[in-house]
């Protein structure tokens, strides 16, 4: 089990206050890492870091905008000042389409009408944000001669969205999965390969974690539609990715880089 230990390692999780982001933080803390809870809301990040410390360890909440290079450099210096190293980076921050007016969701999410500004915003956070965080924090790892970067993608980075799962019991299309999410997550998968090839000789491993959909109070019809397409017959629980994350973060995956670990209940298997 020593292979899975992250004792004395410093791990940064971006988008740390999201549903899966919190579970990533909890898993890393339980494995012994000093966790940097990084999210746009600094006060909430600090509060969650304090919650993690109740179970032991030294954790740090910090507010960051993954699209702001200067802010990331300031965060880097603060983290190094507190912990002395950066060993693990989980690029988890991302935008997934939400429409303020549910009545307009179908119309606005259709490809023919999808706002280009929304597409650009997704590119900025989901792709440029991964690039900048990897550049700013990963360079520290390259200079150290060791480290692990985990880029969180999606099954929709591998296959096109099945729009039929967004139809309700009456067969009405309530929403379309937009082009932005699969386009950006596909970019993340191949960026991983680039960075793994670029930094391999520097001792920095770079892998993708591609999760499936997580059940989170969605409409019952959607949960049923989604579950019917998975080999395990259900959506993921929020903590179903903890084992995969610790594997990729730790020496248990010491000979693994440039890979895409797909954890999706069998969604992409058929």
Automatic annotation (TrEMBL):
It holds the Pfam family adh_short_C2. The keyword Oxidoreductase applies. Keywords: Oxidoreductase. GO terms for molecular function: oxidoreductase activity, acting on the CH-OH group of donors, NAD or NADP as acceptor. The keyword Oxidoreductase applies. Belongs to the short-chain dehydrogenases/reductases (SDR) family. PANTHER family: 3-OXOACYL-[ACYL-CARRIER-PROTEIN] REDUCTASE (PTHR42760:SF133), SHORT-CHAIN DEHYDROGENASES/REDUCTASES FAMILY MEMBER (PTHR42760). This is NAD(P)-dependent dehydrogenase, short-chain alcohol dehydrogenase family. It comes from Pseudarcicella hirudinis.
């Amino acid at each position: 089990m020593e292979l899975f230990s992250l004792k004395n390692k410093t791990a940064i999780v971006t988008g740390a206050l999201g549903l899966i982001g919190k579970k990533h933080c909890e898993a890393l803390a339980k494995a012994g890492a000093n966790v940097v809870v990084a999210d746009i809301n600094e006060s909430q990040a600090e509060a969650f870091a304090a919650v993690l410390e109740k179970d032991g360890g030294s954790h740090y909440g910090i507010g960051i905008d993954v699209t702001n290079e200067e802010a990331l450099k300031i965060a880097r210096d603060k983290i190094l000042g507190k912990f002395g190293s950066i060993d693990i980076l989980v690029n988890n921050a991302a935008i997934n389409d939400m429409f303020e007016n549910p009545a307009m969701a179908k119309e606005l999410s259709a490809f023919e009408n999808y706002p280009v500004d929304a597409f650009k915003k997704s590119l900025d956070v989901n792709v440029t944000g991964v690039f900048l965080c990897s550049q700013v924090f990963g360079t520290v790892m390259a200079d150290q001669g060791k480290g692990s970067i985990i880029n969180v993608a999606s099954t929709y980075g591998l296959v096109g969205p099945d729009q039929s799962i967004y139809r309700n019991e009456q067969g009405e299309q309530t929403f379309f999965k937009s082009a932005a999410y699969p386009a950006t997550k596909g970019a993340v998968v191949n960026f991983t390969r680039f960075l793994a090839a670029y930094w391999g000789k520097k001792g920095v491993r770079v892998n993708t974690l591609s999760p499936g959909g997580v059940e989170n109070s969605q409409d019952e019809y959607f949960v049923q539609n989604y579950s019917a397409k998975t080999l395990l017959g259900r959506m993921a629980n929020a903590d179903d990715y903890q084992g995969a994350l610790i594997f990729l973060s730790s020496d248990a995956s010491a000979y693994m880089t440039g890979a895409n670990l797909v954890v999706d209940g069998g969604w992409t298997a058929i």
